Amino acid sequence: MKFSKQVLELDWEAKAAELSEGLRETVTKKLRKRGLVVAVSGGIDSACVAALAVRALGPERVFGILLPEKDSSGWSSQLGRKLCEKLGIKYQLHDIAPILEAAGCYRQRDEAVQSVFPEFTPDMKWKIVMHGDRLNTDAVNFFYVVVQVNGEERRFRLSPQAYTQIVAATNFKQRTRKMMDYFHADRLNFAVAGTPNRLEYDQGFFVKLGDGAADVKPIAGLYKTQTYKLAKHLGVIDEITSGEPTTDTFSLPQSQEDFYFSVHYSQLDLLMWAKNHAVSTDEAAQVMGLTPTQVQRVYDDIDQKRRSTAYLHSPPLLLEKVPELEPYKLG
Fold first, then answer.
1. Nearest partner of 167 among 113, 101, 245, 103, judged by Cα
2. pLDDT for the residue numbered 225
3. In 80, 116, 127, 264, which residue has its Cα 20 to 30 A from 246's Cα atom?
4. Helix axes 44-57 and 224-233, enclosed angle (nearest 10)
5. Does residue 132 register a pLDDT over 90?
């Protein structure tokens, strides 16, 4: 197929039918579970998975769980509730902030921020970001903390130690959520759905044993643009299908490009497709309205993330093979 801005278009009814049939087969026949637990965040990916699960299994066999914490925006739970009610599924809201507080998550995170900005207090709104425009520079990426002080945003470069401590603390949120997912899955004899789209799955934008843990990942083959379109086809509420993706991890709004991806998903989807189909930088640049150098920077960033996050996809490594278990592996 020749590269164009239309390469990601699909027959959405055919794709919905294909994925729902595959999901039903996986849950009931391969995993031998009664239904599916979906952590509903208020974002597009979990909404698409929840709607797909309802189509595959029926609303009575889908359970939604809403898992806000201290830094979650108020709208995320509101949208999650509204979606669950439209889909007709049972759901439960569980605030995980007390668990995180008791485990020291917030305290250790705040200490890391204070190591670069001693005046930081827990009531201040903040987030972490990468430096400026990565499409137009080959500069090494550095992370900064952005803190809102008296209505003004101030930026402080993070030391490697402060950065990794913040990431470790925020990853704790995803791992705590997954613990709750599996509690309800065990209680109901359901499987747990993972919600990464293709960009997130391919580029390692998930937490190992956190949002990366699941029994089935129904939309890992769909680019972000395709996820939006399939969700709309499946009847997901307009407030979600018209919204921009955010991490909903920090008290200041943070886009996925702020923290991780080199460009907006609408560009990255197409450029990843182009790279995956061996489209030259010159051809991709012409279609995308970019320079070949800019396209090469995105191609290089895709490769770098694939290398550095490969371990996230790996199961625990064994030093010796256990041949007796080979015939029992799911496939």
1. 113
2. 98
3. 116
4. 50
5. no
Long-range contacts of 180-187 (CB under 8 A, 24+ apart): 180/39, 180/65, 180/67, 180/94, 180/96, 181/37, 181/39, 181/65, 182/213, 184/37, 184/63, 184/65, 184/92, 185/33, 185/37, 185/215
Residues 191/37, Cβ–Cβ less than 8 Å? yes
* Side-chain half-sphere CA neighbours of 321 within 13 A: 4
CA distance 223 to 209: 23
Q: Is the pLDDT of residue 125 over 90?
A: yes
Q: Are 211 and 196 in contact (CB under 8 A)?
A: yes
pTM, rounded to two decimals: 0.95
> 250 pLDDT band (50/70/90 cuts)?
very high
pLDDT in tens, 73-105: 989 999 999 999 999 999 999 999 999 999 999
- Given this model, what pLDDT does residue 179 score? 98
CA angle 152, 157, 161 (to 5 degrees): 130
pLDDT at residue 272 is higher than 80:
yes
Contact in structure between 182 and 128 (CB atoms under 8 Å): no
Beta-strand relationship, 152-157 and 191-192: unpaired
Nearest to 137 by CA among 300, 259, 304: 300
Distance CA 251, CA 228 (A): 25
- Do 297 and 134 contact (CB within 8 A), yes or no? yes
Which residue is it, tokens 């990464």? 196
- The CA–CA distances, whole Å, from 192 to 171, 189, 256 equal 19, 10, 24
